[in-house]
Specification:
- The protein is mainly alpha-helical.
- The protein is about 90% helix and about 0% strand.
């Protein structure tokens, strides 16, 4: 359960960070 959640959170966090960088 936790591993699956972490795997789902990694791409989401990466996309969020990229969006912030592009916004800046």
């Amino acid at each position: 359960m936790w591993r699956c959640k972490k795997m789902d959170m990694i791409p989401w966090a990466a996309t969020f960070i990229v969006t912030l960088l592009v916004g800046l």
